[in-house]
């Protein structure tokens, strides 16, 4: 159907196949409708190419309505993340992969829920002020750049970010 875009559903990032194409098909008159109607209409356009668990349906409806309103240019509050958000900045070199593995290992050992994203787009990395990868972002703050952090240091940074 098209590209996959991640949106936040119930505090977690979820990939939706063909979301942009479905948003283009949404009738403009629904802009005045309620979130339930908007979310269900969008879900109807997406259901052939995505799996929506029945138990999570209300969360998907809310998230899809939020994305649709954003698409129409309406003011929408972002859904907060559950747990930490971390980004590994780097074009995919072995050092970037090692930092990614170290972060995942520390999170698993600590039993912390987190969204971990690898950012490989050099323009996006540069916009965050990182010139030498790999970089580590916790929340919205770059906490390290140019080095593969050891697990004990990652643990310290995560604990500091949680406080």
Radius of gyration: 18 Å
Beta-strand level of the residues, as a percent range?
15-25%
Strand order of the largest sheet: 4-3-5-6
Global mean pLDDT:
90
Task: Set out the fold topology.
Layout: E1 4-9, E2 12-17, H1 19-25, H2 35-46, H3 57-71, E3 84-89, H4 94-110, E4 114-119, H5 122-127, E5 135-138, E6 141-145, H6 151-162
Parallel strand pairs: 3-4
Antiparallel strand pairs: 1-2, 3-5, 5-6
Short description:
The protein has helices at 19-25, 35-46, 57-71, 94-110, 122-127, 151-162; strands spanning 4-9, 12-17, 84-89, 114-119, 135-138, 141-145. By secondary structure, it is α+β, with helices and mostly antiparallel strands.
Task: List the main descriptive attributes of the protein structure presented here.
two-stranded antiparallel ribbon, alpha+beta, elongated, 163 residues, 42% helix, Glutaredoxin
Description:
The model has no long low-confidence stretch (mean pLDDT 90). It contains six helices and six strands; from the N terminus they run E-E-H-H-H-E-H-E-H-E-E-H. The chain has a four-stranded mixed β-sheet. A two-stranded antiparallel ribbon has the order 1-2. The chain has two domains: 4-71, no CATH class; 84-162, 3-Layer(aba) Sandwich (Glutaredoxin). It is of the alpha+beta class. Helix 2 (35-46) packs across helix 3.
